[in-house]
Request: fold
Amino acid sequence: MLDFKLPDVGEGLTEADILAWHVGVGDVVEVNQPLVEIETAKSVVELPSPAAGTITALHVEVGQTVAVGTVIVSIADGSEADAEVGADEEQPLVLVGTGPAPAVARTRRLSRRPEAPAPTPEPVTSSPAPQSAPRAKPPVRFLARQLGVDLATVRPSDSEVISRADVEAAATTPVVVTASDREVRTPIKGVRKATAAAMTASAFTAPHVTEFLTVDVTETMNLLARLKADRRWSGVRLTPLVLVAKALLLTIRQYPGINARWDETAQEIVEPRYVNLGLAAATPRGLIVPNVKDADRMALRELAEAIEDLVTTARAGKTSPEQMARGTITITNIGALGVDTGTPILNPGEAAILAFGNVRDMPWVVDGRIEVRKVTQLALSFDHRLVDGELGSNVLATLGRLLADPSEAFALA
Reply:
């Protein structure tokens, strides 16, 4: 008998929410077959089966928050322990603990049995929630994640399998409504809970300073149009964000201090020799900040492809904890939402975050004449413990100059 415990799928995570079971009691599973979908403080992930066998018990319910190390599912994998337990197959509610699981479980089971024949032990499978785990095909689960629908709350209309129509109908229905139907209450869990805690800690720990710069990016937009028309760039999704990201990476080469972090425990300022570029992404479950590893070593094409992959994965709710870890500096593209500027809050542990505003046509003075130009606003927030006004201003000014007057060398760097 294998008792599968909730693992730490990230760096130091302590708990996760059970979103959906993909299996039920009695199902035969293969190695690496998805068992359960969980939401951690950083992302939504599927846990694969560590062994082949038959599901004998689901120990936690959909919607439950579970601590790392808790047994969540038992699998009869044909091991010696299964043979010894035999027809008894008493379910291991007592298996939480340390040491060899089969031996501990067997000892505890024997110690709890009276000498006389005992009534049938209360089976774990009596809990209705796990056995009635929602059934839905992968495309329907994907749609549910996009719409923020909890499949555990959806009732199939025509069969035991949840359909696309069922999910779409549930998306228009409030999950939790007061008796008067005048307000909606949503539990603060998972990504949103972690985001709230992190942003509060950041706001009250790091002394934020935000500086603003309005930039004429007409030449950058012209460069973007030329690259898109170039046959050599066909198949590559180029956006203004990609060029802003490249410009920021080139700026960091000149001012690496903007890429530092504050180590409170060691009382040190740490300056990485790499840039893991974070990109704030809005998902159905809240704001997350996955990052492109070693973005500073990428050519423009590679960077564009990495950003596209990161955004697509985030929107699909498939961002892994590894993609969320060890970011060094962040860009938030608020311009994609039609917003000009803002005062972004630092991603915890990072020295700076750049807000890239909407690119719009505006009157601009060029050589003494007023012309209509493509203009945007940049906002750079930084931790004043790490970055003084001179460094922050130099970074923002240099970034603005690159975007105002790009060259082929910048584009292909």
Remarks:
- Confidence is low (pLDDT under 50) at residues 85-116, 120-132, 174-179.
- The first helix runs from residue 80 to 85.
- Residues 94 and 276 are 44 Å apart (CA to CA).
- The first strand starts at residue 2 and ends at 5.
